[in-house]
Automatic annotation (TrEMBL), chain A:
Chain ranges of the ABC transmembrane type-1 domain: 56-238
GO cellular component, one term: plasma membrane
Transmembrane spans: 7-27, 60-83, 90-116, 122-145, 176-197, 217-238
Main location per the UniProt record: membrane
Species per Swiss-Prot/TrEMBL record: Celeribacter halophilus
Keywords of the record: Cell membrane, Membrane, Transmembrane, Transmembrane helix, Transport
Protein known as: NitT/TauT family transport system permease protein
Record membrane topology: Multi-pass membrane protein
Family that this chain belongs to: Belongs to the binding-protein-dependent transport system permease family.
Subcellular location: Cell membrane
Automatic annotation (TrEMBL), chain B:
Listed name of the protein: NitT/TauT family transport system ATP-binding protein
Pfam family, one: ABC_tran
Presence of the UniProt keyword ATP-binding in the record: yes
Alphabetized CDD domains for the sequence: ABC_NrtD_SsuB_transporters
UniProt similarity note: Belongs to the ABC transporter superfamily.
Domain ABC transporter per the UniProt entry, residue ranges: 5-238
Domain of life: Bacteria
Amino acid sequence: MKHWKQIATPALAIVLFIAFWEFIVWVNQWPNYKMASPSDLIPAYAKYWNLFLIYGWQTLWRTVVGLLVAVVFGTLIGMIMGFSRTMRDALYPLLVGFNAIPKATVVPVLALILIGHHDLNTVLIAFMISFFPISVAVSIGLSTLEPEYRDILRALGASKWTIFWKIALPKTLPEFFGALKVAVTLAFIGTNLMEIVEPHGKGLGHLFDSGKINADYPLMFAVLIALAFLGILLYYIVVGLEKIFAGWAERPQS
Amino acid sequence: MTNLIDIKGVIHAYQTENGPLPVLDDLNISVPEGDFCAVVGPSGCGKSTLTRLIAGLMKPDQGEVWLHGEKVTSPRATVGMAFQNPVLLEWRTILQNVLLPLEIVPNKMTKAQKEERGRELLTLVGLEGFEDKRPSELSGGMRQRASLCRSIVHKPDVLIMDEPFGALDAFTREDLWQTMHRLREEEPFTGVLITHDLRESVYLADEVVVLSGRPATTQHVENVKLGGRTDLEVIYTTEATDILHRLRHQIEIAQGRAKSEEAA
Ligand SMILES: Nc1ncnc2c1ncn2[C@@H]1O[C@H](COP(=O)(O)OP(=O)(O)OP(=O)(O)O)[C@@H](O)[C@H]1O
Ligand SMILES: [Mg+2]
């Protein structure tokens, strides 16, 4: 019963949203180049379904790889900053500065440096745009660990590594997953940025671009919805992982 | 009998932005094997610093700490620690929390033996049936009980407690005092108990050390002999109240509110 409700509630919300969208377009009599309606999208999907599968997969795997690199690199940087005050002071301004650069300006630079390596470029942008929140969350999680937590193991002669593995890491997981949810969305932005700004015939960004060139407005909208779908998919995968690895941090609902 | 804990002429200062802050100054404490030593003193005089030195988490600037005839230079597995904050790990069950030290300290116990040991201890402190609960499902007093079990699960020689009952209400605290006596009957260990509660020190300890204000020295040592009684009523006997009065007076000296006899 509870499980059923958990799926039914968001599903109903989506159905209502689509109905409202259809209604708004119909009431205003908008032409599909101004605002496509959900019913315009069905033919677009029917016509290009194989392209959606191919390009959607390209967007998805490059986003996921970028995200994985961001997790590894972001966690490493976060660990370095979390354990060493000096490194934190040294790295923070660099990280903040790097994060402040609008990634749209990095795209052409990267495309020039790594000319021809489209997959690598795209993965790199997805990574660059998404690792910052992970680093910050891990470093804050580690540096705010109360000394007593360390001392209960240190007093027994435990190594730094054991303390990290048994205490610091699990204690940081809730913050880590919070950041990962933000990072998922950011990584998608990164992938699409590269696909649209430096078109190289791959990914949903390319499909969007060809919709634009051919004035196929329903196709453009269909791409947006497909992107939203992929975003939701990845987000809920992260939520699932969070439940498994950091479910203990959830307060029981009353 | 030999002393299990020997603190000899310990001097320690913290390096702060305003220069060195002397915290301990020529501190001497000896605790015979099996005894319980309570340490009381004004707030901020250096009691927690003392526990960290005994545990080997820090080295004193001067002087020496000896445990079991060995000079302490680093943490050792024969020590157990409990703090005011029970520091239980929320992602582990109560039993898993209690067993944590056995994952660090080398031992030859099988998994089943460890579990049995943990369950035994939890039963001893009255937490039977809570083994598989999460820390957040327990009350403050129950968490502190679990934390006590964790601090002695690996059978340490020395149990160091830094105001373990400080955050509890008066009745829960008295319950835990009695639990402490029960644990001592079952598990032989030498204890150092930091506390702000003079009644607690008299009820639980064999000797009470009064530290002076910062920098702390050993100002007074009071031997507590209450004829081995462990019922709470013993606190209200004349022997106990006499000791309490003397300790009270010493604390006032330590705080600088009363003159010591020698100075007067
Ligand atoms: N890591 C540190 N660096 C600098 N100063 C410290 C540090 N730890 C403690 N101090 C200072 O040393 C003094 C003694 O601290 P300590 O925690 O040992 O006192 P305490 O007797 O345990 O106090 P309380 O009764 O409040 O628990 C305090 O003035 C404290 O501010
Ligand atoms: Mg203290």
